[in-house]
Design goal:
Elements: H1 3-16, H2 21-28, H3 35-51, H4 58-72, H5 84-89, H6 96-111, H7 117-133, H8 139-153, H9 170-180, H10 187-200
Length: about 200
Amino acid sequence: MSHMQAIENQDKALDDVQLDPVERLAVAYAPAGLRALWIGFLAFDHRLADAAREGRDPIMVQLRLAWWRDRMGEPVSRWPQGEPLLAVLAPWDAERAALGAIVDGWEARNVGSDGGVALRAARIGALAAIARLGGARDGAVLAAVAQAGGEWLDRKAAANATPRLPRSMRPLAVLRAAALAADDTRPMLRFGTLLRVGLFGR
């Protein structure tokens, strides 16, 4: 497959990804070069949630998760063709281990008894991976990403101070703001808050 064909396949796969409205709004504020990383992360988590959803045969859950774990354990150049989500995840090649940890987290949540602890940690780890792929190396920045990620996933953990995130993590700022405003019954005000955070990060 030529480089141009690979790009065309990825663009088509990105167009086919299903995200919820808040996620789509959040992703819209990602720098263009990192947008595929964000879409891949969110879409991958959705796919695993579906694979491991309650009511599925446990053996089938294990098989589906094992398939994705195997893919994350090998370089993109060895990934099979024909799975659109793999095309979306190609930019994650250098940080595949972070996505593999999400697979393990879903397995621990569904067939283990950790109550989702490993999954939460893996999601935060994937956010840190996006930050690194976006050029972040400073420990304080990565700590802020971890804080914001924790508050997105569990708003009860929110601190008084808003984490200062790099531009590459603007989608996380929007997702965090949406989670913290989840109980707001004024949709226009809530939407305005998300737009403000998307534009300014706070």
